[in-house]
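Exercise 7b. Backbone tokens:
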């Protein structure tokens, strides 16, 4: 079974890493696919996001990291994926993901299924968006930095620390 795990991964979090590692245990092949979306304004480039993932998951043998642009259904078919993998933290995630699953199925010639894995409880609050939001308003000396840092794998954490240095308010 080949699974494709798509996402923005801007940046990859320990939550994403957890989902990928757990799925790699039951999938024969897992393709982590980084979305290159010209309409989004990511903090990190596709090359950076891919590098963070490679650093975090390099020991997982049946896992590949790639990037894609365009429709996920097309990319999944191109890669011969049997199903799409997405992580769910809560019911809000499910509400957002369920229509995507329906669209992806109808947009693929193979009616591709989506498999949802529940986030491990210790990662249920972890969010790239919230990490970025908090990081944009603080530096690494601030109380609470450790809380942010521990949610990111090492390469993503180091890159986020670098970005934080240039993010500070001027007033
Ligand atoms: O990490 P994210 O931002 O929640 O991931 C969203 C992602 C990449 C899964 C989604 O935006 C996506 O698949 N984009 C590619 C375009 C597409 O096929 N969209 C779904 C059908 S409309």
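Sequence design result:
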């Amino acid at each position: 079974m080949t699974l494709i795990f798509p996402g923005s991964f801007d940046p990859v979090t320990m939550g994403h890493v957890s989902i990928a590692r757990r799925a790699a245990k039951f999938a024969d092949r897992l393709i982590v696919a980084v979305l290159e979306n010209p309409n989004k304004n990511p903090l990190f480039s596709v090359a950076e996001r891919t590098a963070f993932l490679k650093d975090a998951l390099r020991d997982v043998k049946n896992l590949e990291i790639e990037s894609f642009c365009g429709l996920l259904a097309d990319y999944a078919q191109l890669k011969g994926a049997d199903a799409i993998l997405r992580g769910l933290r809560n019911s809000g995630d499910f509400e957002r993901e369920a229509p995507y699953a329906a669209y992806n199925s109808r947009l693929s010639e193979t009616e591709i299924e989506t498999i949802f894995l529940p986030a491990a409880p210790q990662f249920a609050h972890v969010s790239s968006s919230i990490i970025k939001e908090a990081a944009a308003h603080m530096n690494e000396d601030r109380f609470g930095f450790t809380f942010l840092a521990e949610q990111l794998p090492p390469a993503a954490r180091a890159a986020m620390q670098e970005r934080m240095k240039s993010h500070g308010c001027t007033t």
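Instructor comment: The first helix runs from residue 14 to 26. Strands lie at 2-7, 29-35, 63-68, 83-88, 113-118.
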